Amino acid sequence: MAETEDLNNILTRVGPDTAMGNLFRRFWHPALLGAEVERDGSPVRLRILGEDLVAFRDTSGRIGIISAYCPHRGAPLYFGRNEDCGLRCVYHGWKFDVSGRCQDVPNIVPPDNFDKVKQRLSIIGYPVEEAGGIAWVYMGPLDHKPPLPNMAWLSLPPEQVHVSRWLQRSNWAQGFEGEIDSAHLSFIHGLKNYKGTMQEVVMQDGAPKIVIRETETGFVYGARRDYNGGYYWRVTNWLLPTWSVTAPFVESQGYHGRAWLPIDDEHTCSFAYKYQPNRPYTEEEIADTDSGWTFPPRIEKGTYALGDGTVIDTFLPIANRENDYLIDRLSQQSVKYSGIYGINEEDRGIQEGMRMVPGRPGTIDRRFENLVQSDAAILAARRKLVKLAREVDAGRNSELGQSGDLPPLGAIGLVTPIADFDELLAAYPEVMSQQKINIAAE
User: Which of 27, 97, 198, 397 is 20 to 30 A distant from 343 in Cα terms?
Assistant: First the structure.
């Protein structure tokens, strides 16, 4: 049990100078939606990996993600004036550009070495790239900065991509592990009368066989269910550290996936993407996505006070802990297995209320778990992440499995007579897109 507690601490603690925090900082992360920041518009308050930051788009259109506080007297830069390619603190007028470089200190008489003074007063400003409707941030050592992850949707026209983000009030690992748990589809997301619906393929077998193959960027796993004399395979790719590539139940839905960005040890910013590779989304499809039935949940833009009182700008789920996720007990009896409306709302209702570590709200106490065969992907991901975190912390892993230089991965969900996972991957090579797999890994 002591070993489980130690592993849980490594897995779930993500602040500065923690092993998992250092691992996460070696990857590009989705910080916010590009549409959230306008030129010379209002900044956006963020916390990422336990660090308070503020994002803004300057006069030229560049996005900056910099320290949330002015180095003069710690004033919040959120209230600053976004003007003339910089964010100016309204307390005493100090000004910073998108890189965090100090541009002006108007409350002093400029000394002869004013440029050196401004250089000394610069603040943290992280590299930012904009792609796929998302502002990406890299918070790690610059000499290890990788290219952006090579995901197919990042290069598509905006009208073919839908991105969203929202607050989850739990540790990041709870959301991520739910993402690679195929067995729960047969239960919490199930329908009472599933015949003829797209969920029929997962409702007939609640104990899928899980097969895992490690890849250069994480792993690919297949969940095989018995179905009408054949098999329903649902094949998902995991990209380090928390991205999923999942297949639609219906091809017209488009491909999709999610990522789980730690805000701190107790909160997560969930991101979702979906895309149509060959055509724009229709207005009806966008409205259906925004209905909250899948991802994102029903949300509204707002602010949220974290445990220490720090306020962030985010998107708040309408179904939440305070209203019991709007559970409908009558629906639970006759329509839905859970009685909760949307897929993410079902997931969050469970993940935000799991048995917590004493004194650590938002973090599940894994000492009391009893894992089974269908949890194999969860266990494999934990082991891989903890192993990598320890290696990075010890300075032994200088180059992680980054996806920037590799072909984008795919996913499938289909009924087939093929029983063997490796045979299935050979029959559908688009899943791996020429990435190497370790066929010895189970």
Answer: 27
